[in-house]
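TASK: fixed-backbone design
INPUT:
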């Protein structure tokens, strides 16, 4: 399924499940930065939107409502993902707004949320680095051993196969020492017989 079709289904599903205020926010559409994050970072890094919730509603310490750009909710963690533009989240803030943003994040952390923030400029200038951060989130906090690869096998099975190919001498580590991130074919080994 194409990104556009998947995105459309993703938004419709969340509008159907949302309360009145969140639904209104979703119908207004995600902002440019949030759409850019989904298209340039999340989709290429993950390939689906499972467990991801746009404009996620949380109660604040004053029993008010706040909205997270995205919530990634999957046991055992809740992850808040925020996309921050320099103007609205830095340069254009009053001292009170700046303090309120910090207080908001502190309360999320105290309520058990893990928080990841991406600068808008990083999404546009360094999307691959942002993708790697998302992949680190999934790998480090969730292990993502159950996520299928494009080959239709689990990541755990893919790792086992790669390890066996290295042991047999068909593959050589191409990057990383303690944690291998890529491989290259061993030119001294003949063709692989399956």
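OUTPUT:
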């Amino acid at each position: 399924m194409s990104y556009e079709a998947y995105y459309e289904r993703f938004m419709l599903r969340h509008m159907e499940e949302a309360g009145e205020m969140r639904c209104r926010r979703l119908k207004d559409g995600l902002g440019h930065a949030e759409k850019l994050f989904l298209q340039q970072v999340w989709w290429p890094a993950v390939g689906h939107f499972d467990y991801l919730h746009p404009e996620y509603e949380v109660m604040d310490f004053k029993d008010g409502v706040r909205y997270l750009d995205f919530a990634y909710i999957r046991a055992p963690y809740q992850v808040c993902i925020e996309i921050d533009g320099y103007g609205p989240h830095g340069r254009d803030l009053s001292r009170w707004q700046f303090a309120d943003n910090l207080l908001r994040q502190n309360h999320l952390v105290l309520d058990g949320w893990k928080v990841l923030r991406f600068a808008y400029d990083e999404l546009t200038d360094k999307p691959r680095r942002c993708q790697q951060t998302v992949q680190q989130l999934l790998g480090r906090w969730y292990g993502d051993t159950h996520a299928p690869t494009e080959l239709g096998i689990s990541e755990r099975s893919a790792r086992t196969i790669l390890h066996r190919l290295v042991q047999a001498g068909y593959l050589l580590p191409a990057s990383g020492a303690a944690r291998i991130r890529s491989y290259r074919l061993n030119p001294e080994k003949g063709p692989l017989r399956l």
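COMMENT: Residues 3-142 form one domain.
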